[in-house]
Amino acid sequence: MEKVIAGKSIIVNEEGYLQDFNQWTKEVAEEISVEEGVGNLGDRHWAVINYLQDCYKKEDPLTIRKVGKSGVTDIKEFYELFPGGPLKKATKIAGIKKPVG
């Protein structure tokens, strides 16, 4: 289905995850972040988002434990940055597919 995000027509699934990573922009991420209740993205958010996107591009499966051991953030900060389901919210904001599990 299509949804207008940051003035662009974006293809998302029924849960709001982007179906085409190439449609992702920082402006799209900022708008999704506000929708998800995360608010404005700071440097720490962007560090996590960049890490998640790198893993996605390498087809490296993501887990909360893996993010916590990444050296980018620890699990406590991950939950503080993306409250109420950090991996799901962070991957949605990063424009990548919903994590399995």
Describe this structure in words.
The chain has 101 residues and is mainly alpha-helical. It is 46% helix and 8% strand. The chain has a two-stranded antiparallel ribbon with strand order 1-2. Strand 1 and strand 2 form a beta hairpin.
Gist of the model:
The chain is mostly helical and 101 residues long.
Order of helices and strands: EEHHHHH
| Overall spatial form | globular
Oligomeric assembly: single chain
Total beta strands: 2
Name the structural class. mainly alpha
Q: Within the largest sheet, what's the order of strands?
A: 1-2
Query: Helical amount among residues, as a percent range?
Result: 40-55%
Number of helices: 5
Q: Give unreliable regions as ranges.
A: none
What's the N-to-C terminus distance? 24 Å
Mean pLDDT comes to 95
How is the secondary structure organized here?
Elements lengths: L1 E4 L2 E4 L14 H10 L7 H15 L6 H5 L6 H7 L4 H9 L7
Antiparallel strand pairs: 1-2
Helix pairs in contact: 1-5, 2-5
Which features would summarize this protein structure in a list?
mainly alpha; 5 helices; 101 residues
